Amino acid sequence: MFNFLDDKFSVAFSTKHMETGHLLPEAPDLTEAQAEAIKLAEEIYEEFLYAIDLERGDMQFVNNSLPLHTRTAFEDWPEPERKRLLWRLWLVAPDMRPPTPYIKHWRGGLLLEGTKCKGRVGLKA
Hints:
Number of domains: 1
Distance between the termini: 22 Å
Order of helices and strands: EEHHHEE
Largest sheet: 2 strands, antiparallel
Number of helices: 3
Shape: globular
Strand content: 5-15%
Helix content: 10-25%
Radius of gyration: 17 Å
């Protein structure tokens, strides 16, 4: 969850990914202390939550190695021209914080199925 890489603080926190990862046969079970730590971290970030409503055309730039962030549920429109469209672009700059192993995992790109963009997109860093 919290790392010091090259003496810089970095965060890679995703409850869903941590819990799912521990369900894999080769992964150890979450310990009681780890489960409590996840719950405490969730309580802290809920206390300091800052909600942002993004409208059509809005852009948001976030350093993915620092804030704890998530998306809330949404109800999409049935008409294709009104469907939600979210493009996520992960920029990598030489002076950014070192990536955590979790962030490195995503640098190979994402396979976009069910979208207009076919194939694997992303950076090899």
